[in-house]
Design goal:
The complex is a heterotrimer of chains A (about 350), B (about 260) and C (about 280). With about 350 residues, chain A is of the alpha/beta class. Chain A is about 40% helix and about 15% strand. In chain A, strand 1, helix 2 and strand 2 form a beta-alpha-beta unit. In chain A, helix 6 runs parallel beside helix 13. Chain B is mainly alpha-helical. Chain B contains eleven helices and no strands. Chain B starts with a helix and ends with a helix. In chain C, helix 3 crosses helix 7, helix 3 crosses helix 9 and helix 8 crosses helix 9. The longest helix of chain C is centred in the first third of the chain and has 34 residues. The two termini of chain C are about 40 Å apart. The chains are: A alpha/beta (about 350), B mainly alpha (about 260), C mainly alpha (about 280).
């Protein structure tokens, strides 16, 4: 009983002791998006303790940071369109590149993108794409080369879509020849009409782990993230990743410092540490998504570096588009998304 | 024959409750990473679980919050149920209505409104905000369970006790509490279950220095169940089971 | 007499204070929010409007409400049908293992429900346990497609919510006096008659409590429909969560939450009234 009480006291005192130590950094990241060893090494080298907490969606992370007015956390990892949004709302701290000695390791192709010109507020962490997966044991791969092929009536009840309003509409908008980030209500309406005709083919919406329904034989084609496709292919070589003709959906998760962060210097030290060639390599290998760090990519095993699923060629990226913030138009998307699901 | 059917049914329900857990335990020993097929026995997920100190810390915090919030919610809830049952007072209907509203509130609504409340009241996000929130959402479950047990009970016994000179507190401790005990235990168990399972409210009302297990598990599972999670679930399932069995054996010995 | 008023005052005061701070104030905030406007930058703008409620009068949302209510109702009825005989048997057991058996009911539920839902998924999957067993026994020729159907959702809901039915029922049945049932039998009632005429009315508070504890949470539950139903249906829980997080339309989400609470209050009140009338008029 006494030991239990001691334990209780210890745990209750834990947050206090963490606050008492002056060298900490509060890191808010996607779960399973960073190997624990990296943090241990960082603490060993710098003496800065990392308090690591996780979230599972941009939306939830944003709502919380917004309500706390950008305080409470020192480092977060939003995706492109949330970087865009948080930047526009003044929720982010400006990042001084001259303090990041490893900044030059980054791939210039992934820098200075429209969601954050000159990367004044964000530093790329990992990136990837949303394309098509095909189980070649069940479906002739020549039949699936474009988003529009998912509408093939042969695939009735065999298609997976991600459970993400922006990605699904992005895909439908591209098949109609519209921009993936359309804000014109008429274009969004047409995408909705188009999606209604896809519903008989849809077996499941899944954004938890899209590879599992493919591996379990529940679906044979549909949308998937490239990292998941890579993992699925390791388990079942018949599952292939396809870059659709209309263009894949690109996303990039970036390190940002919230406006009212208390430990900015420690956060900067951590960013610079994560940009080291060997650290970037280790993260990319462990997590399975592509590193934006050229020095890290060079160190990767050739088989991985030349794997088109993880590291696409320039040809694969024709028509590819990053998602950007669409402002109020999200309510239009959401309305049609609800109609799409409730209308069955 | 009838007895056979009754016992068979009894066992069948237990089987229904335990089957998914058994599958989960089996998966935790499966060498396959995604558990889609059996690829041999392995303990590697347990090894990598114990490498993950964050997970173990979070599990301890969760147990503390669940035990405290279940106990406090049960205490407050039992008192409240007794009050609602014993006394007629102005505003009783209002309290009933508030309990109903709380049960109806979708998680996300409760989560965001409580977070706003804590920000306004300057409650530091972490242990205390989490504890207050967990007590709050467990409360109606205890009250409803205890109230249903008390209702229909013959109030003349209480009057008799009072006639014999027992005070209000004594009546509560000696008559009502023992009477309600099975419901109080049930209420505690339900509260504990709610607390270890809550994700959405906890996500919003806790702070960076006090992350609990359901949040960790939820965000891990969201990106595909990691086999380590199955290993952890197996342990979390076996420990209370072992505890209950041991305590029973010890009790029997004593007798 | 003084201690009565003190005890009464303290307990009622504590409950009222708690509910006032943690339920009344937050919910007032929600009600106020439901009359304001969405803001892209600050979640809400302080401008009065009833537009959020007007938008809810769309047949689409009525369908969402009806579908969720039906699903919750089916889950509640199944829980009652499965849980009542079980709780009855458990409560009437004379062995001293009874408390252990009760705890055994709840232990599986201390494992995170999301993980358990995933386990159900591996049972129902096309190449899952159930299909493998059925195929091996030769009962079916081709795997059944069980996952991502509404029956999978119902199974999942019943599984997750069953203890919330069993425990309140157990608490009420346990106090039943067997002499009451015997008296009824002595008066010539058959076992079934005794059960319907005596046992059910006596355990009605438990039935109502259990049904409430299952039905109300079932309305807001969404991850089971997402995981086992393939997220193809929209339920109230999803809808409100999407409004708050994805669409960032707090006023509309608040209006939906307020409307749902009111609608359910009206339905339940009407239901209680009709039960009470039946009870006083009939039998």
């Amino acid at each position: 009983m006494k030991r239990l009480l001691m334990l209780l006291v210890l745990v209750l005192a834990l947050p206090l002791s963490a606050m008492a130590a002056d060298k900490v950094v509060y890191f808010y990241n996607w779960s399973e998006y960073l190997p624990e060893k990296v943090l241990e090494q960082f603490t060993e080298e710098t003496g800065i303790k990392v308090i690591y907490t996780t979230y599972d969606s941009n939306e939830a992370m944003y709502a919380k940071l917004k309500l706390l007015d950008g305080g409470g956390y020192d480092l977060a990892v939003p995706s492109t369109y949330y970087v865009n949004k948080m930047r526009n709302e003044g929720l982010l701290h400006k990042i001084d590149h001259s303090k990041l000695s490893n900044y030059t390791n980054l791939d210039p192709k992934l820098l200075n993108r429209p969601f954050d010109p000159d990367n004044g507020y964000s530093v790329p962490y990992l990136w990837g794409s949303t394309g098509i997966a095909v189980n070649t044991a069940e479906i002739d791969p020549n039949k699936v080369t474009a988003w529009a092929d998912l509408w093939n009536p042969e695939f009735k009840g065999q298609v997976l879509l991600t459970n993400d309003v922006r990605e699904v509409f992005h895909m439908a908008l591209r098949t109609l020849g519209y921009p993936g980030n359309a804000t014109d209500p008429e274009q969004i309406r047409q995408a909705y009409e188009k999606l209604v005709t896809l519903m008989p083919n849809v077996r499941v919406f899944n954004s938890d782990s899209p590879k599992l329904p493919y591996l379990g034989g529940e679906v044979n084609t549909g949308m998937i993230w490239n990292g998941e496709a890579y993992a699925a292919e390791q388990e079942n070589p018949a599952i292939k990743y396809v870059y659709p003709k209309e263009g894949v959906i690109l996303w990039l998760d970036s390190l940002v410092i919230p406006k009212n962060a208390k430990n900015v210097d420690n956060a900067m030290a951590l960013i610079n540490f994560l940009l080291r060639p060997e650290i970037g390599q280790f993260i990319s290998e462990e997590i399975g998504y592509a590193s934006p760090n050229l020095a890290s990519v060079k160190r990767l095993d050739e088989a991985v570096r030349n794997n088109r699923t993880v590291y696409p060629t320039a040809e694969d990226l024709v028509n590819a588009e990053f998602q950007v913030d669409i402002g109020d138009a999200i309510t239009v998307y959401e309305k049609y998304w609800e109609k799409l699901k409730a209308g069955r | 024959m009838a007895r056979w059917i009754r016992n068979g049914y009894f066992l069948l329900v237990y089987l229904f409750l335990y089957l998914p857990i058994l599958v989960l335990i089996a998966t935790s020993f499966n060498a396959s990473k995604y558990g889609t097929s059996w690829q041999g026995f392995s303990l590697k997920w347990y090894a990598s679980l114990f490498d993950n100190s964050l997970l173990v810390d979070a599990a301890i915090r969760s147990l503390i919050i669940a035990t405290l919030s279940a106990t406090l919610a049960t205490a407050l809830g039992t008192l409240s149920a007794v009050c609602l049952y014993r006394y007629r007072f102005a505003g009783r209907q209002v309290l009933n209505a508030l309990l109903f509203v709380m049960m109806m509130s979708p998680d996300i609504v409760m989560a965001i409104s409580l977070l706003m409340l804590f920000i306004v009241l300057h409650v530091q996000l972490g242990f205390w905000s989490l504890l207050l929130a967990h007590i709050t959402f467990s409360l109606p479950f205890v009250i409803i369970t205890v109230y249903s047990r008390l209702s229909g009970f013959d109030t003349r016994i209480i009057e008799a006790a009072r006639d014999l000179g027992a005070g209000e507190l004594r009546t509560f401790l000696r008559i009502l509490l023992p009477l309600a005990l099975p419901a109080v235990a049930a209420g505690w168990l339900l509260s504990f279950t709610l607390s270890v399972d809550d994700v959405i409210v906890s996500f919003f009302v806790t702070g960076p220095s006090f992350e609990i297990l359901p949040l960790k598990i939820y965000s891990m599972v969201r990106l595909g169940v990691k086999p380590e999670v199955n290993a952890l679930a197996t342990i979390l399932f076996l420990v209370p089971l072992l505890f209950v069995t041991l305590s029973q054996i010890l009790l029997r010995r004593k007798k | 007499m003084r201690d009565k008023s003190l005890f009464k005052f303290l307990t009622i005061g504590l409950l009222a204070l708690w509910l006032g701070i943690f339920v009344l104030i937050p919910n007032l905030m929600i009600v106020v929010t439901s009359f304001l406007q969405r803001s892209e930058e600050h979640f809400v703008d302080v401008l009065f409007t009833v537009e959020n409620y007007r938008k809810l009068f769309d047949p689409v949302y009525f369908g969402v409400f009806a579908h969720s209510t039906l699903l919750a109702l089916v889950a509640t009825l199944l829980c009652l049908l499965i849980g009542y005989p079980f709780a009855y048997r458990l409560a009437r057991l004379t062995t001293r293992w009874r408390p252990v058996l009760l705890v055994l009911v709840i232990i599986p539920f201390w494992t995170n429900s999301l993980i358990r839902t995933y386990a159900i998924k591996t049972i129902l999957a096309t190449k899952g346990l159930l299909n493998t067993v059925l195929l091996a026994l030769g009962l079916i020729d081709a795997p059944l497609r069980l996952l991502y159907t509404s029956s999978a959702v119902t199974v999942g809901m019943v599984y997750v919510l069953l203890p919330f039915m069993i425990l309140p029922l157990y608490a009420v049945i346990e106090k039943l006096d067997s002499s009451q049932i015997e008296a009824a039998s002595d008066l010539g009632a058959s076992r079934l008659q005794a059960f319907i005429r005596v046992v059910i009315p006596l355990t009605l508070p438990g039935i109502i409590a259990g049904s409430l504890l299952v039905f109300l949470p079932a309305l807001g539950m969404f991850y089971i429909a997402d995981l086992l139903g393939g997220a193809k249906d929209l339920l109230i829980g999803n809808f409100i969560k999407n409004q708050f997080l994805d669409a960032r339309d707090w006023p509309f989400g608040s209006a939906a939450s307020v409307t749902m609470t009111l609608a359910m209050a009206v339905i339940l009140l009407a239901y209680y009234r009709s039960i009470r009338r039946l009870n006083s008029g009939g039998i």
